[in-house]
């Protein structure tokens, strides 16, 4: 591991955690990597400013999520992915009009706390590099950011990327 990367690991302290299955209700958009910096903040702001109060059965009043759902064999150069701005619920009965529900499976996650106002790394690339060096690989097409609380598009968040340990065969 090179010296600069090791310094970043010591600064950001990424880790692997286990997380239970949970359900989120919110609004979504489809976007590409090229358009995400416009579309994602718009849907997140719309949800938090005018739609969040419509969600019933919320688990926690301060926590919200930004969830990405990549298609199989995702090609970031051209493929669309889905972004969901939402909150965790106890059940998804009585979903508001134009909202959706998604169940996030129980997984191990590589996690990283990130402050977009002060941190100068790409958290997704950094976390991916870290977990691959630690002997993990991607385990699912769904990952998420946790805001506690959401304070606008520059809110701190904890990035969660689903991972699984790579099984190595020793010969």
Automatic annotation (TrEMBL):
Q: Kindly list the residue ranges recorded as spanning the membrane.
A: none
Q: InterPro entries, from UniProt?
A: AraC_E-bd, GyrI-like, Reg_factor_effector_dom_sf, YobU-like_regulator
Pfam family of this protein, just one? GyrI-like
Residue span, AraC effector-binding domain: 12-164
Would you say which domain of life the source belongs to?
A: Bacteria
- According to UniProt, the name of this protein is AraC family transcriptional regulator
């Amino acid at each position: 591991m090179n010296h600069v990367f090791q310094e970043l690991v010591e600064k950001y302290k990424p880790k692997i955690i286990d997380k239970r299955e949970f359900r989120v209700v919110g609004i979504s958009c489809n976007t590409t990597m090229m358009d995400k910096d416009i579309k994602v903040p718009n849907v997140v702001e719309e949800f938090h400013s005018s739609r969040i109060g419509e969600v019933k059965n919320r688990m926690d009043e301060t926590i919200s999520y930004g969830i990405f759902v990549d298609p199989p064999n995702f090609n970031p150069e051209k493929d669309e992915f889905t972004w969901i701005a939402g909150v965790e619920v106890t059940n998804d009965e009585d979903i508001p009009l134009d909202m959706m529900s998604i169940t996030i499976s129980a997984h191990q996650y590589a996690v990283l706390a990130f402050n977009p106002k002060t941190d100068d790394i790409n958290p997704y690339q950094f976390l991916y590099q870290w977990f691959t060096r630690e002997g993990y690989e991607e385990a699912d097409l769904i990952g998420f950011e946790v805001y506690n609380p959401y304070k606008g598009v520059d809110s701190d968040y904890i990035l969660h990327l689903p991972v699984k340990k790579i099984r190595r065969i020793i010969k």
